[in-house]
Amino acid sequence: RQGVGLRDNFLILQIMMAATALYAFPSLRHLPGWNTGGLAVAALLHVAATEPLFYAAHRGFHGAHLFARYHALHHSNKVPTPFTAGFATPLEHLVLGLLMALPLAGACAAGLGSVGLAFAYVLSFDFLRAMGHCNVELFPGGLFRSLPFLRYLIYTPTYHTIHHTGKKANFCLFMPLFDRLGGTLDPESWELQRKNRAGMDEAPDFVFLAHVVDVMQSMHVPFVMRTFASTPFAVRAFLLPLWPIALLFMFMVWAWSKTFIISYYHLRGKLHQIWAVPRYGFHYFLPFAKDGINDQIELAILRAERMGVKVVSLAALNKNEALNGGGTLFVNKHPDLRVRVVHGNTLTAAVILNEIPKGTTEVFMTGATSKLGRAIALYLCRKKIRVMMMTLSTERFQKIQKEAAAEDQQYLVQVTKFQSAEQCKTWIVGKWLSPREQRWASPGTHFHQFVVPPILGFRRDCTYGKLAAMRLPKDARGLGSCEFSLERGVVHACHAGGVVHFLEGYAHHEVGAIDVDRIDVVWEAALKHGIRPV
């Protein structure tokens, strides 16, 4: 509570200063909405007065006496966040407030003040302060190489993080020019900025192509709320006021956005990136949106091709059979692709199958004729395990049954009612189950799942597995965010399947139907590379 109060100090102080100015100078109450001349005066005074005075004051606060009594509080946050910008003592806020008021006062004294200028300058000032403390590099590395003079006009989060780390350099407010003039500019600032940005600017070797789940989950990304994204996703109360803003962004993304980078990590010296198709879960169930989604996925694959990416792994609904045949559409349309397109479901099937206890003789499966359901059923019947395949389509059931060896076909049984599974304690769920349907399971049943979203656990006398997931190898670096509701370092099995495809250097595309013969091969390859089941 004390920390929150200290962070509110500058807001309260700015309000008090504005109110005092309005009472002391009644003419301020009649300012025009906007005056362009005032903007020029404020900009000139900011550069000529606010920036050098802040630089001098900031260096003064780093003197032994003032630092220990005042400025040490601001540096007490080991990892800067946007809130760190406002985490300071009243004396520091007073100095900063007065320096911020100088350009506005100068513009008003020249008769060029305006209400718009006051709001624009104050909000821009606070935004740049928060940006400098956000600890996420926002500026492209190539920007400063192309336009070197910008290095002295605007600081970056990396630039100011160096100040918080060493406390002996990079004292400026927003313009590194004054550090250069004062001899306090850290020479490694721009090289470190380039390295911090490298995960965004450099070409990756592996891409996991995801999509947004829903409006709430759209805020679970590092560039929106880094701290929130570093924990498994769950709906939190503080998200509710932000929901309307996130909804507005959804419409903007739907209308204008292209595939964008969410996050990245390094594994075995190679860059892995997570990209997002700018579509939300519900879009995939709109008939008129199908072509647009496939166009976005195709553009992402072709972009990866141009960048030299080795493997693109399709996530969740991006590989839906009804949408694009599990990626087959793109491979058939572009037969000369060098980048390998992968759905990763071979490893997903392997994870589910390896969760089934040894000694199991019978399972009941919904979603049995889906891509994953088919592969799981064919694998289990080879192991002489009886599979009750819940489906109303005799044609689809018989098609799968004929794929099995003649001696194994007897282990595949079509059922059309949930009552058939009353005595079976192993349910594999590939299609949503209502509470009423779950009631047919006997006490002690375990529900294995590959349905998205996962079913809700209504039965307290049964157990529920989570969606198939695996833990990345221990040498993975830069895992700063969580993949949806999984803990950091854990990814969905289809993501891990794509990683295995890349690490093994497989030359084939993994699209369409799952090759049952490769389930054990991929599983062993995953374990060999240190990718472990959760």
Task: Describe what you observe in this structure.
The structure is a single chain. The protein is α/β, with parallel strands linked by helices and 534 residues long. The chain folds into 3 domains: 6-198, no CATH class; 202-342 and 471-533, no CATH class; 347-467, 3-Layer(aba) Sandwich (Rossmann fold). The protein has 20 helices and 14 strands. Strands 8-7-6-9-10-11 form a 6-stranded parallel beta sheet, with helices on one face. A 5-stranded mixed beta sheet has the order 2-3-1-4-5. Helix 7 crosses helix 9, helix 15 (345-355) packs across helix 16 and helix 15 packs across helix 20 (519-528). It is elongated. The protein starts with a helix and ends with a strand. Mean pLDDT is 91; it is low at 1-6.
